[in-house]
Structures are given as C-alpha cells and as structure tokens.
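User: Hi! I have a protein structure encoded as tokens and I'd like to know what sequence might fold into it. I'm fairly new to this, so please keep things simple.
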C-alpha cells in the first residue's frame, strides 16, 4: 500500500542528482497539478486577508483562514482520536494525494495550507507524537530543507491535531515574522550560555518567551537539546513530555532552533462562552503568524487580546529565568 503512494522520480520528471529541497519543490508542483483539494485550497490562500499589529519590540500578523477551522478546533482527547481513521497513515490519504519519502518520514502537501509551501511530514509508521525520539529527524530534515524553509513540531496538547501519529510540518520561513526579528532579539538578549559547542539563549522580550539554540556540532547540539528537555520536565514536574513548540532551520552551516515551552493548550478566551475567540496557538502562531479561522474574530480582536492569549499559553519570564539559572548551575554535570 505504501509503495503505490510514494511519488517516483519519473512522475517528478527528474533523476536523483537533485538536492532534496529541489525535489521537494518539484513534488509540490506535481501535487498542485494532480491533487484536487490542494489546488482548490491554494487558490483560496491567494485571497487570504492579513493584518499586522505592531508592538514595542516586535510585530504579530493575523491571518483570516477559514479552511483552518478543523485544525484550530480539533478535539484531541483519547476517545475522539480512537474513533476516527488516522489521516496521516498512508492507507488513509486522499485518493489523489502522494508522498515523497525521506528516511523514516513522508512528505505530504498539506491540503489546508497557511503558507505558499506547506508540508506535513509524518513518520512512515503510526506512532505517538513524541519529541525526544525524533531529534535526529529534526536535524536531518531541517538541514535537507535548506534555508528557505523552517521545520516545526507541535507537541501533544500544544497544537498537534494528530497526537497519535508522529509528524513534523514545514513551511516557508519568510512568512513567519519572528524570523525577520530573530537576529535583533539574539543580540539584545541577556541570558546566554554555551554547552557542548552549542549556544543557548533565553529570549524574553517577545510575546512568548523562548529558548534559542545555535550550533554546527550535531552531537553536542543533540545532547544539549535533551538536556533542556530534561530540565523542562523537572521544572514542570512531569513524566510526560513537557509542553512545547519547536522550530528548526539550517543556515550557513548552522542549525538554528527555537523552542517555546508551553504551560497550556488553549487560552481562556477560547472557552469564554460570550466572548469566545477561536485561536489555538501552535508553532506558526507563536512565530508571529496568528491564524484566525472565523471572520468575526479577525475583524474584532484587539492587539492586547491577541498578546494576552499568546502569553497565557507560554512560559512566563520568571520561570524562564529560573530554568536558565538551574541549567547554568548544573551544566558541569553534563
Ligand atoms: Zn496513523
């Protein structure tokens, strides 16, 4: 079953000499011609409405995108999940949808796009959304995608609408406001340290505080990410995966990774019967492209409400500083 879903070089009109990111582009164009729902929804994306809210030190963009309502309101409890067919398993893909293989992962064109290029990248096998066992995948795929794309991971309870089937996503980096402001934020950050040839920086002068990693050294970076993961588990006192959204890209021989620690799945405004706002933040939203699937929310949301909703699901500044102090004092043990 899987094999007939995998797109061949012949279908892409190519040989294997191409770089992977070039192949991904051909695959996207192939799907745009042959996968009906995809071309339909990309047509709609061209007319999507956007607005920019400017704050002191950063901008947030809002996008009215009605096709994303399924994702924003997805029920992810165990009962709902066990009663539906898994839409990321190869046997349940749309009839005219194909996949491009990368190691143990499949690239799929996301038929409900946010970006000019939007991919969902599930594991070939049906296995739960879990970060730690997919760090190699994060590093391999982000490097193969080149500097135009960004790869991202939404943890279970942090925006993943299929927590039962492991998946990354990828999109074009230039669409996310955070990446235009990142260098400035890094330069003005106060809390920095280096572990295993990896720079780690705490960035708090943004709507959602985050941890930034930069390294050329794969092994050291991997260890450092695990160390931060374990420190977050301790901070949140959890044996489950700590809440997180992670974005990674590869630029000038360096991996650059942004990790947003999360304390909540959805903000309280989402559950407010009278003043409900359908906004369920995940990697893309926290990176400054906030998706609102309802027109009335897009028309009426104030910049303060938007900032409040983001801040509520993220780690606060004080906790972030504690985390950093703790890591600084115990890094010698690594
Ligand atoms: Zn599955």
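Assistant: Happy to help. Inverse folding works backwards from shape to sequence: for each of the 334 positions I chose a residue that suits the local structure. Here it is:
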């Amino acid at each position: 079953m899987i094999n007939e879903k995998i797109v061949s070089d012949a279908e892409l009109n190519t040989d294997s000499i191409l770089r992977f990111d070039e192949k991904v582009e051909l695959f996207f164009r192939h799907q745009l011609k042959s996968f009906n729902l995809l071309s339909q929804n990309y047509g709609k994306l061209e007319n999507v409405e956007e607005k920019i809210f400017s704050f002191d030190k950063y901008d947030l963009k809002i996008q009215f995108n009605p096709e994303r309502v399924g994702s924003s309101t997805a029920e992810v409890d165990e009962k709902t999940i066990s009663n539906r067919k898994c839409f990321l398993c190869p046997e349940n893909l749309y009839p005219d949808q194909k996949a491009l293989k990368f190691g143990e992962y499949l690239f799929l064109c996301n038929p409900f796009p946010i970006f000019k290029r939007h991919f969902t990248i599930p594991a070939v096998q049906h296995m739960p959304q879990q970060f730690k066992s997919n760090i190699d995948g994060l590093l391999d795929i982000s490097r193969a995608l080149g500097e135009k794309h960004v790869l991202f991971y939404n943890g279970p309870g942090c925006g993943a609408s299929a927590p039962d089937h492991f998946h990354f996503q990828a999109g074009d980096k230039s669409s996310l406001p955070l990446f235009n402001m990142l260098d400035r934020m890094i330069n003005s950050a106060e809390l920095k340290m280096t572990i295993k040839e990896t720079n780690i920086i705490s960035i708090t002068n943004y709507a959602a505080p985050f941890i930034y990693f930069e390294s050329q050294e794969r092994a050291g970076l991997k260890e450092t990410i695990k160390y931060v993961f374990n420190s977050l588990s301790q901070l949140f006192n959890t044996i489950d995966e700590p809440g997180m959204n992670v974005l990674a890209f590869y630029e000038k021989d360096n991996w650059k990774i942004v990790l947003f620690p999360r304390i909540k799945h959805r903000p309280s405004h989402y559950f407010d019967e009278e003043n409900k706002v359908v906004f369920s933040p995940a990697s893309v939203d926290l990176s400054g492209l906030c998706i609102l699937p309802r027109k009335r929310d897009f028309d009426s949301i104030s910049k303060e409400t938007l900032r409040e909703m983001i801040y509520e699901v993220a780690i606060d500044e004080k906790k972030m500083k504690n985390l950093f102090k703790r890591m600084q004092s115990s890094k010698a043990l690594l």
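A useful reference point when you look it over: The chain is about 35% helix and 20% strand. Feel free to ask if any position seems puzzling.
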